[in-house]
Each structure stands twice: as structure tokens, then as C-alpha cells.
Amino acid sequence: MLSEATLRKIDREVSKYPDDQKQSAVMAALVFAQEEKGWLANATISYVASYLELSEMAVFEVASFYNMYNLAPVGKYKLTVCTNLPCALSGGVHAADYLKSKLGIGFNETTPDGKFTLKEGECMGACGDAPVMLVNNHHMRCFMTPEEIDQLLAECK
Amino acid sequence: MAILEAINPTLTAGWHQPDLRDMNRDTGWRLKDYEARGGYQALKKVISDKLSQDQVIAEVKTSVLRGRGGAGFPTGLKWSFMPKGAPEKYIVCNTDEGEPGTFKDRDIMRLDPHSVIEGMIIAGYAVGATRGYNYIHGEVYELYQRFEEALDEARAAGYLGKNVLGAGFDFDLFAHQGYGAYICGEETALLESIEGKKGQPRYKPPFPANVGLYGKPTTINNTESLASIPYILRSGGQSFLDLGKPNNGGTKLFSVSGHVNKPGNFEVPMGTPFATLLEMAGGVRAGRKLKAVIPGGSSAPVLPADLIMDCTLDYDSIAKAGSMLGSGAVIVMDETVCMVQALERLSWFYYEESCGQCTPCREGTGWLYKVIHRIEHGLGRPEDIDLLNDVAGNIMGRTICALGDAAALPVRSFVKHFRSEFEYHIEHKKCLVPRDVQKAGSTFHTRLMAGALC
């Protein structure tokens, strides 16, 4: 259900914690599962649960509590824009509006070709670099003027 | 452009400037660079001088280093709460930096990760912990990866693992990644999260020093607090204290965001006038007039321009003015900002991030947002201002953790200092700040399209 490479990454996480505390690795395990599958289907959550010897509900609770997990399919590129106050004071809302008009979608929507999903994010801890956005959770882009956004979209093949 | 400047740098001395376009091109953060600027000398001094655990804690107490995460609790005192003799103890670093306006720990982790590692090893030695975890904000995944690399370097050099530098004590350290939950910045929610659970805060007492991670005694410190430890042990607690002012030791990083010409992180001595920091940040954008400042992250009460301009940057001065130094996140707003709209966005944040455990917070944050939203959208009622104060008052002090207070304090302070703007919105169904002024300020003005008054 998950690749060998993903399972080895999960094993490495398990080794960070005391022997009887496998559950501590669940957040990382879900991150790796999501990286492989794109989103966390119930079957994926069940598999992670059985691999870490946890109840399915314990794993689902984690997957549904933290907002960077995708509990539904997303586009190939998930763009999350921070619109919290410090970012908004420096153009965060503009950046989001620009993306909406370029992509023809609103927040929590995916383009018909399945390429882009747009999300509204909360503080990413980079307010001095606003506007700030995340690409697929793990890559932060800063100072996102319309020109920078155009360049980012062009990079997303 | 986010920049980094300092007066009397201690924490940031020797740091390279961040690469503004691509953090993978940052330099100066690796082990060899850290050692070249005196890194790990503090740890070596603790070992060569054979300092006892109590001596290390005493030095930190002398420094009057106060917790840089927001609460300002003296770090040395916190360490002294750890019970002696317990077989399994933990040190946890809180790098879950998600308080709107705060981005100092990001630069520490980005440009000087080994200072956090060295601080944690010394902390581990002082409290008798053999294992540590650094909990890193999910949104800065690239820094989590960098920290993992720094850990590998430290392990290979013998700073981590069994028998650290041959000194006869063990300490190992691991990174734990968050994945999007503001509440995990609360220390007991963070512990729950490391344990692989929902990040819902625990009742206190018992405090983590007695029942912490996996039920074992645990000390949790902020990233900047831990990064300040090497200087204190290298140069002495008194030297650190002397950098700041009495009861407010050292220098501190201030993150300045919003309407300034040069947003960024600034390291200044505690007690520096606010006006000096504003000047370092290039002054108010486009020469406009300062309207208000949130001095310590979004949870701190807002202060109008005349109050903040008289403050110095230390816990006591800002508290006297009616706010909190908090995490040192300074959010600057100029005259183009509608305070109702600004508060609407903050209230949405607390509503979104309430963990749902305590009814006053779960329900109250929703009420606060809904009422502010309707005022902002021309549907406010004259009694709404009292209602906001009432709901805020019913949250404060009635929740397990401080998120409830954090949601209520901005509401109370915005209404207190800018009541006329709320009244104007309700009465005239439009904003006190003229539209063309707001547009010139380039804040939220595109929301005009969505039916907002501002």
C-alpha cells in the first residue's frame, strides 16, 4: 500500500522516539504517505495505522486535526497563500486575488485540468517576507508580487 | 525586503544575511561556520570548567534571560523546577512559530541552527535530560530539513550522542515536524503533538517539569531562549544582563512587519526605545502617519501610536502601556488601515485555530468573528460593541490554555482604543477611513469586491 522507500522513511522517524512510543512517528508517517499518494484516503490512513500498530481512529484524529494534510484529492500543485493580518498589510490578499483571477478558481477549488488547488493559509512565520505562499506544503516562496507569481506558475509544469 | 540588522549583536553576531530569493543559497549556517565564530565554546567551557548543573542554572538566572516565546518567564527559574534524580527527563525546544507577526525563530533556524543545538545540549546537561526534541513549525519544512542536516553534523563531531565530547554525559537530539496547527505553540499541546496526538492543551498543574513528555519531567523553552544560552555561558550571565536593563536581560530579536519601509528582524538591547526600532525598520511606509502597533504578536493588545511611541522595548514598559512584549513581533499599521477590518481578520484566525476543547473558546471565537464580520459588512447593531466586550469577557480566564485570552485581548483593545471606528461602521454603514485613503495604503482593499465596507 505504501512503497518500500516511504516505509523506510517512516522507520527512520520511529527510531527517533523511545521504543514504546511509536505513535510519535504518526505525523511524519502521514506526511510521507501524503507525499507518495497526493492525499490521505481512508485506506491510506488505515494502512499507516496498521503499520504503526495504532487504531485507525487515532490516526484519523491526527490527519483531520492538522491542516496541512489533504483529506481530499488536490491538484498537482497546491498553493497556500497566507492572508493573515501582517501579510495582508503587505499585499497577501492581493496575491491571493491575483492567483484567483489567473487560475479562474477560488479558495478550496481545483482547476479543471487538475493542475492547481488554491488554499487560504494562516501564519507561516515569515511575515517580513510577505506576500508568502507554500507550494505543496514544503516549499516556501516569498515576496510574491504578480511578476513572481507569473514566474512560479510558469515553473509549475 | 526582509533584512537583518542589530545594535550590540550577540545572538546574531557573525550571521550571514539570508538569501532573499532562494534559501538554498544561504551561507554561514554550517558547523564549521558556527565554530569559526566561537560556536560550541560555551559547551566546552562548561565541560572544562567542570561546572555543576546548579552552577549552569545559576548563571542563567543571573542573566535574567526571560522566555522569548511570549510569556517572559525567567529561563533559569524554569530550569530549576526540574526534579533532581528522575531517571528520564526531556528538553523540548518550541520552534512552532505561528503567532502572526513573529518570524524571528525562522531566521535563527535558518542562519544559526547550531546555536539552538548548543543551547539545548547545555540545557540538557543543566536539568539532567538525556534526550531532546525540537518541534518545528510545519510551514517551514525546508528549515526542518536544514536542522536535520545540522544535527547530523553535530552528531558526527561528537557534540551529540553517548558521552558528549568525552565528558561522561549522554545527550541526543531529534527534530519533530508540526503540520499546521497554531495551538501547538502552546507547550502542553506541543507535547501532545510529539506524542502523536491531536494538539490539545493539557490541564496545568501538573506542570511539564513534573509530568511532561511521555509523562516524564520536561523543560520546554523557546528557540530564541535556547539560542541565547551559549552567549550566557561563554561571556557570563552578568554580561548578558548588562546588555539590557534590570529585570530584562540581554538583547532580543524583534520581527517588524506591516507598514514599514524595511520589514525584517532586528536585534536590539532590551529597553531600546520603540522609536529607534521603527527608525531601523525604515520608518512608516511612504512617509505616512503611524496609526497603531501590535507590539508582541497578534495576541497582544493593540496600542495607538501615541502610547507605543513612548514605550521602550522591554517586558515592563510595554506592560505598563497596557500590552505585552510577547514574542517581540511588532505589527505596524499606518493611517490607511481600517481597524474593524484588521480585527475581523485576526478574529477569523482565532476561530479557525481554536482546538475546540473548551466551550468558551470554541463557541466564543465564532461569536467574536461573526459579530465583527457583520459590523464590517454594514449589518452591525448598536449593541454589538457591548456584545463583543461581553463575549470576550466570558472567554477570558475560562479556558484550559491561553488561546482564549489571546482571542479576546485583541478584541478588547481594538474596541477600547478605536471605539469610534466601530461606532462609525455601525451607524453609517461605511468606514471612517475614506476609501481612497485605504486604497492608497494597499492593504485589503480588493475585498471591496466581496461586499466589505472597507
List the helices and strands and how they pair.
The complex is a heterodimer of chains A (157) and B (454).
Chain A: H1 4-14, H2 26-37, H3 42-51, H4 56-65, E1 77-82, H5 85-88, H6 92-103, E2 109-110, E3 116-121, E4 133-135, E5 139-141, H7 146-155
Chain B: E1 3-6, H1 31-36, H2 41-48, H3 53-63, H4 75-80, E2 90-95, H5 104-111, H6 113-127, E3 131-136, H7 141-156, E4 172-177, H8 187-194, E5 218-222, H9 223-235, H10 237-243, E6 251-258, E7 264-269, E8 272-273, H11 274-280, E9 290-294, E10 303-304, H12 305-308, E11 312-313, H13 315-320, E12 329-334, H14 339-353, H15 359-376, H16 384-395, H17 403-417, H18 419-428, H19 435-441
Parallel strand pairs in B: 1-7, 2-3, 2-5, 3-4, 6-12
Antiparallel strand pairs in B: 6-7, 8-11, 9-10, 9-12
Description:
The complex is a heterodimer of chains A (157) and B (454). Chain A has 157 residues and is α+β, with helices and mostly antiparallel strands. Chain A has two domains: 4-65, NADH-quinone oxidoreductase subunit E (Arc Repressor Mutant, subunit A), CATH 1.10.10; 77-156, 3-Layer(aba) Sandwich (Glutaredoxin). Helix content of chain A is 44%, strand content 13%. Chain A has seven helices and five strands. Chain A has a five-stranded mixed β-sheet with strand order 2-3-1-4-5, covered by helices on one side. In chain A, helix 1 (4-14) runs antiparallel to helix 2 and helix 3 packs across helix 4 (56-65). Chain A is elongated. Chain A starts with a helix and ends with a helix. The model of chain A has no long low-confidence stretch (mean pLDDT 97). Chain B has 454 residues and is of the alpha/beta class. Chain B is 42% helix and 13% strand. Chain B has 19 helices and twelve strands. Chain B has helices at residues 31-36, 41-48, 53-63, 75-80, 104-111, 113-127, 141-156, 187-194, 223-235, 237-243, 274-280, 305-308, 315-320, 339-353, 359-376, 384-395, 403-417, 419-428, 435-441, and strands spanning 3-6, 90-95, 131-136, 172-177, 218-222, 251-258, 264-269, 272-273, 290-294, 303-304, 312-313, 329-334. In chain B, the strands form three sheets. In chain B, strands 1-7-6-12-9-10 form a six-stranded mixed β-sheet, sandwiched between helices. In chain B, strands 4-3-2-5 form a four-stranded parallel β-sheet, sandwiched between helices. In chain B, strand 9 (290-294) and strand 10 (303-304) form a beta hairpin. In chain B, helix 14 (339-353) packs antiparallel against helix 15 (359-376), helix 16 runs antiparallel to helix 17 and helix 17 (403-417) packs across helix 18 (419-428). Chain B starts with a strand and ends in a 13-residue tail after the last helix. The model of chain B is unreliable at 445-451 (pLDDT under 50). The interface between A and B is large, with 50 and 63 residues.
